[in-house]
Amino acid sequence: MVAVNRRILTLLVAMVPIVAFGVLLSLVTVPYVSLGPGPTFDTLGEVDGKQVVDIAAGGDVHPTSGHLNMTTVSQRDDLTLGQALTLWMSGREQLVPRDLVYPPDKSKDEIDQANNSDFKRSEDSAEYAALSFLKYPSAVTVATVNDPGPSVGKLQRGDAIDGVNGKPVATIDQFTSLLKATKPGDKVVLDYRRKNSPAGVATVTLGTNADRDYGYLGVAVLDAPWAPFSIDFNLANIGGPSAGLMFSLAVVDKLTTGDLNDGKFVAGTGTIDSEGKVGSIGGITHKMLSAREAGATIFLVPADNCDEAKTAHEDGLQLVKVDTLSHAVDALHTLSAGGEPPRC
């Protein structure tokens, strides 16, 4: 009986570190974030019953086929030690110090808001880059309407301003020059074009602003290519700017005849500016893995990411190097014709 009690006691003592280690694995969090392959979305397709890239009536939209998939990186925070070890051992995830993803001088909400703002700007840049490639003419375009402000209810984001007090304006310099000749309290008559609507005229009483001594209209404008129809991007909960290239390609494909991708499954990534320049992104190897697993055979890689992309060795995935929207379109046309596009 004594021997049995000793064996039980020995077993219990031996289990103490095992139980303690189990508690450690399940309860203790680590200062790391896991990065891995995220979902991909076909920019030519639908999500939740809506076109990912929706071009309103008025745009001459043509049928498309194949895929132009944007790719993402998944991100997991607040990992326990056990979760971190499991993800790391899977070989699909990368653990990075949390401070690299969430700098300690910013809250998580602030970082998420910044990522959402980057994504919204990437949508605007993608639209402008595509319309510029398609040779839509430039106009003085309303980027934002300050609320409160003199133009609320008079002008809308996306309006093209063609005249101020009967004088035509085609550039921001001309527009600003006419505003600088006004003073607070003046009324200005603005001729404008609105997407999906008839042209109109708005009369605005100018306000005051501390940064100027002339009349305050309360809008931010930019020189941008303008089309009479709206383009909406219907993806929620996607942050960052790296979808820009694929959004632009989808707009180009829908507004031109023929299939840009020749019916193939193309995926890719890359930021884009309003002039069509493609920029580098993070997590390229994770995005390549998610693209290959989704069925892609061609992956568009920003030129500055090529060296890193070549380290992934994703069999069956052709890596096509791109540095501008125009070059990306040319590369896809070359592939469709059976030629050899620029490779990483």
TrEMBL record:
> Is ATP-binding given among the entry's keywords?
no
| Parts of the chain that traverse the membrane | 12-33
Q: Where is the active site?
A: 242, 287
Query: Mind listing the UniProt keywords for this protein, alphabetically?
Result: Hydrolase, Membrane, Protease, Serine protease, Transmembrane, Transmembrane helix
Assigned EC number? 3.4.21.53
Statement: the UniProt record of this protein carries the keyword Protease: yes
The similarity annotation says: Belongs to the peptidase S16 family.
This chain's protein is named endopeptidase La
Q: Which organism is it from?
A: Mycolicibacterium moriokaense
